[in-house]
Amino acid sequence: QVQLVESGGGSVQAGGSLRLSCVVSRYTDSTGCMAWFRQAPGKEREVVSTFWLSTTWTYYPDSVKGRFTVSQDNAKNTLYLQMNSLKPDDTATYYCALDPTVGGCSRVPGPYTYWGQGTQVTVSS
Fold first, then answer.
1. Do 19 and 96 touch, CB atoms closer than 8 A?
2. Which tens digit of pLDDT belongs to each residue from 10-22?
3. Cα 104 from Cα 39, distance rounded (Å)
4. DSSP H helical segments within 44-97, as ranges?
5. How far is Cα 52 from Cα 106, in angstroms, rounded to an integer?
6. Most CB atoms within 10 A, among 74, 85, 93, 97?
7. How far apart are CA 37 and CA 97, in angstroms?
8. Which long-range contacts (CB under 8 A, 24 or more apart) does 102-105 make?
9. Partners of residue 94 on adjacent β-strands
10. Strand 10-13, strand 119-124: pairing
11. How far is Cα 22 from Cα 20, in angstroms, rounded to an integer?
12. What is the mean pLDDT of the chain?
């Protein structure tokens, strides 16, 4: 069974940085897509980054573009999300997700089969 485990969340002041990690177990295929989503209380889960495994193409919504960067360390089977210039609006639980099918990266949660447990990010003003 594929397993995703996130870490790196915490509490920071506005303008600060955090780096989230997602360790992937039992999945070594180069196909599929990985993504970071976040969900704040009372809001829908939204994508903050996608990473197409076969091409390393990435996507960021306007809300985080220029502040967040996704990267991968194949040797460690780990996906990272570097978050800079954090804002209070970035406060949410952050999840990594994996869609093992071929064909690109969805920007909605539905197609993603595997999910981590989530890590909390709190940004204070």
1. no
2. 999 999 999 999 9
3. 22
4. none
5. 10
6. 97
7. 8
8. 102/31, 102/32, 102/54, 104/33, 104/52, 105/33, 105/35, 105/50, 105/51, 105/52, 105/57, 105/59
9. 38, 119
10. parallel
11. 7
12. 95
CA separation for the pair 116, 123 (Å, rounded): 21
- Residue 121 CA to residue 21 CA, distance in Å, equals 13
Question: pLDDT value at position 123?
Answer: 98
Write the single-letter amino acid at 15: G
Residue 98 carries which side chain, given as an amino acid letter? L
Q: What's the chain's Rg over C-alpha atoms?
A: 14
What's the pLDDT at 102?
79
Confidence band for 103, pLDDT divided at 50, 70 and 90: confident
pLDDT digits (tens, 9 = 90+) for 18-66: 999 999 999 888 889 999 999 999 999 999 999 999 889 999 999 999 9
Nearest alpha-carbon partner for 17 in 89, 66, 84: 84
